[in-house]
Amino acid sequence: VPEVVSDDVNGFIVQPKNSQNLALNIEKFINLPDKGKKMGEKGKELVNDAFSIQVIVKKKAELYLSLLGKN
């Protein structure tokens, strides 16, 4: 999850079985809808930048070339 979610930037990281912290973070989305919207935009930006088809193809090509010893 850390490679996708940056706490308080594009989401919240809540430890397992910590329902109190989960509730506090849900309240933040309810009480600060603009913050939730910005987090969503940041999340979309991250996915577009890090996981676009162009990025995935480039990484796979680099991997295959390195396995062939052609890097």
Low-pLDDT stretches: none
What's the average pLDDT? 93
Described by its quaternary structure, the protein is single chain
The computed structural class is mainly alpha
* Strand portion: under 5%
N- to C-terminal distance: 30 Å
Report the C-alpha radius of gyration, rounded. Answer: 17 Å
Given the structure, what is the number of helices? 3
Share of helix, binned: 55-70%
Quickly describe the structure:
The chain has 71 residues and is an all-alpha fold.
List the helices and strands and how they pair.
Elements: H1 19-31, H2 33-50, H3 53-67
Helix pairs in contact: 1-2
Description:
The protein has helices at about 20-30, 35-50, 55-65. It is built from three helices and no strands. The model has no long low-confidence stretch (mean pLDDT about 95). The protein is mainly α.
